Amino acid sequence: MGALIVTKDLWKIYRLGDVEVHAVRGVSLEVERGEFVAVMGSSGSGKSTLMNIIGCLDTPTRGDYWLDGRDVARAGQDTLAEIRNREIGFIFQSFNLIPRTSALENVQLPLFYRAVSLREQRAQAAAALARVGLNGREHHYPAQLSGGQQQRVAIARALVSAPSILLADEPTGNLDTESSREIMALLEGLNRQDGLTVILVTHETDIAAYAARQIQVSDGQIVGDRSTAAAQAGKGWGAQ
């Protein structure tokens, strides 16, 4: 079985007037099904642009990208929207919950675009909330929940479509230390116990340590790729 994610010589170039900005520069990457990967880099390194392409939120200027054997680099917007809805679950730093909508209704949102009855939507959303430890909080609004609980709702929303991949962009950025540990333990469990492929964007080494593999991005290029075990042993980038 081939890798779930394969990119080859991937570029993303933006034009700002007469200036070209090379946000992603010739990235070749493979991620196997069931991996937990942390993509690290400072602000402006290109890591978020790369994740937007992997998440089908953006398209490359040139290069190849295959997701589960499917060529998505040249896919149309309708196809990309379908892939996002069915294959990828997104988790964001700011939670992106609808304030006047209950936890259950927030989690239901991805199912509105599917041929699923309202009753089944509610059942699946309730099951997803239970999966992240929020039994009994279904009818709470975001303002009635702690930051950690709001992020759990966001994770449940990402899970409700049964995606192949979870993309988590700085998921602990707005959380305190204890809530951050709880969220990362939850993501770690989803990877280890359920076999979900998790790609985490972070600039924090302690958060990256939850992943099994760490990739360093700088100036739009991958400049390092190592196992977390190698990192903890004090080995440099490129060590396994």
Could you provide a short overview of the structure?
It contains 8 helices and 10 strands. With 240 residues, the chain is of the alpha/beta class. The mean pLDDT is 93.
Q: Secondary-structure map with pairings?
A:
Elements: E1 5-16, E2 19-31, E3 36-40, H1 47-54, E4 62-67, E5 70-71, H2 77-87, E6 88-92, H3 103-108, H4 118-131, H5 147-159, E7 165-169, H6 177-194, E8 197-202, H7 205-208, E9 213-218, E10 221-227, H8 228-232
Parallel strand pairs: 3-8, 3-9, 6-7, 7-8
Antiparallel strand pairs: 1-2, 1-4, 4-5, 9-10
Helix pairs in contact: 4-5, 5-6
- At the fourth level of CATH, the homologous superfamily is P-loop containing nucleotide triphosphate hydrolases
The count of strands amounts to: 10
Strand content: 25-35%
Distance between the termini: 22 Å
- Name the average pLDDT: 93
Percent range of helical residues: 25-40%
Question: Which value, in Å, is the CA radius of gyration?
Answer: 18 Å
* Domains, number: 1
Which blocks of ≥5 consecutive residues have pLDDT under 50? none
Structural class: alpha/beta
Widest sheet: strand ordering? 6-7-8-3-9-10
String of helices and strands: EEEHEEHEHHHEHEHEEH
Q: Output the number of helix runs.
A: 8
The CATH topology label is Rossmann fold
Give the second-level CATH assignment, the architecture: 3-Layer(aba) Sandwich
The global form is globular
**CATH class wording:** Alpha Beta
Largest sheet: 6 strands, mixed
